[in-house]
Design goal:
By secondary structure, the chain is an alpha/beta fold. The protein has a single domain (2-157), classed as P-loop containing nucleotide triphosphate hydrolases (Rossmann fold), CATH 3.40.50.300. It has helices spanning 8-18, 38-49, 91-95, 141-157; strands spanning 2-5, 27-31, 63-66, 73-77, 100-104, 117-124, 132-139. It is globular. The model has no long low-confidence stretch (mean pLDDT 90). It is found in: Cytoplasm. Belongs to the TsaE family. Keywords: ATP-binding, Cytoplasm, Magnesium, Metal-binding, Nucleotide-binding, tRNA processing.
């Protein structure tokens, strides 16, 4: 699935649209350059899950936990693991837990990431500061069903 957003509010809205479809155990891998909108997307997702706290990038903490929403949200940023193995961090406990995991920079944790996931790539469109291109791919049965439901939701809204 591929589509475009034209501003930060629309990027946040994508997260808000996806959130009601999420279930415990869902894993979202976010790919994109610095400033692409990964945390903006996650902010919208968290708001729609009912998280009341401000959503901040977990770059320096690796994991931020938000447990006050409809589902616990575990927002991870693996960028700092570029030269370190992720296997010693116990991330599996989050992936096998009762919440939703959103992982930024997943390429630095490939050794521990589950095979089934929804991969969302966000790219800034050259020459347009606020426009983003989304590419979403599902790996596995549950992520495939999630993507199908999201496609239907977006088709019905347009």
């Amino acid at each position: 699935m591929e589509f475009q957003t034209n501003n930060a509010e629309a990027t946040e809205l994508v997260g808000q649209q996806l959130a009601p479809l999420l279930q415990s155990g869902d894993l979202i891998l976010l790919e994109g350059d610095l400033g692409a909108g990964k945390t903006t997307f996650t902010r919208g997702l968290a708001q729609a899950l009912g998280v009341k706290r401000a959503i901040k990038s977990p770059t320096f903490t690796i994991i931020r936990e938000y447990r006050d929403g409809r589902l616990p949200l575990f927002h991870m940023d693996l960028y700092r693991l570029e030269n370190s193995p992720a296997e010693d961090l116990g991330l599996e406990e989050y992936f096998e837990g009762n919440g939703v995991c959103v992982v930024e920079w997943p390429e630095f944790g490939e050794d521990v990431l589950p095979k089934d996931h929804l991969q969302i790539e966000i790219k800034q469109i050259d020459g347009f500061d606020d426009q983003r291109l989304f590419r979403i791919v599902a790996e596995g049965e549950r992520p495939g069903a999630l993507l199908a439901a999201f496609k239907e939701l977006r088709a019905n809204e347009s």
